């Protein structure tokens, strides 16, 4: 004859707990849930606060790159940035624009000199 055993994992509804214990259990669940929701809200606000300057800076780099690509080689980015990596990115973009500007000037001079 085969026997079937059922195993319940976790808390059963109210079995074996006094009314005070049940109230405590549900109060604890509500408190944990509320704490998680508040923590997630704070994390969302902080992430929006700290990601905004980075997003704006990346947008500025993208706009400047597009201007340089269309021939506006005098476009420069502000190198006054508090985040080291973004400051280095701005410096690199400005350096690239400067080199392209110099190359264009050199080409114009050589064209004028070689013009018949």
In short:
The protein has 116 residues and is mainly α. It has two helices and no strands. The model has no long low-confidence stretch (mean pLDDT 84).
Task: Describe it.
By secondary structure, this protein is mostly helical. The chain has one domain. It contains two helices and no strands. Helix 1 packs parallel to helix 2 (84-114).
Spans where pLDDT lies below 50 across 5 or more residues: none
**Please, how many domains?**
1
> What's the total count of β strands?
0
The secondary-structure class comes to mainly alpha
The total of helices stands at 2
Distance between the ends:
110 Å
Q: Which overall shape is indicated by the principal axes computed on the Cα atoms?
A: rod-shaped
Estimated radius of gyration = 32 Å
Helix content: over 70%
| Succession of helices and strands | HH
List the helices and strands and how they pair.
Blueprint: H1 19-69, H2 84-114
Helix pairs in contact: 1-2
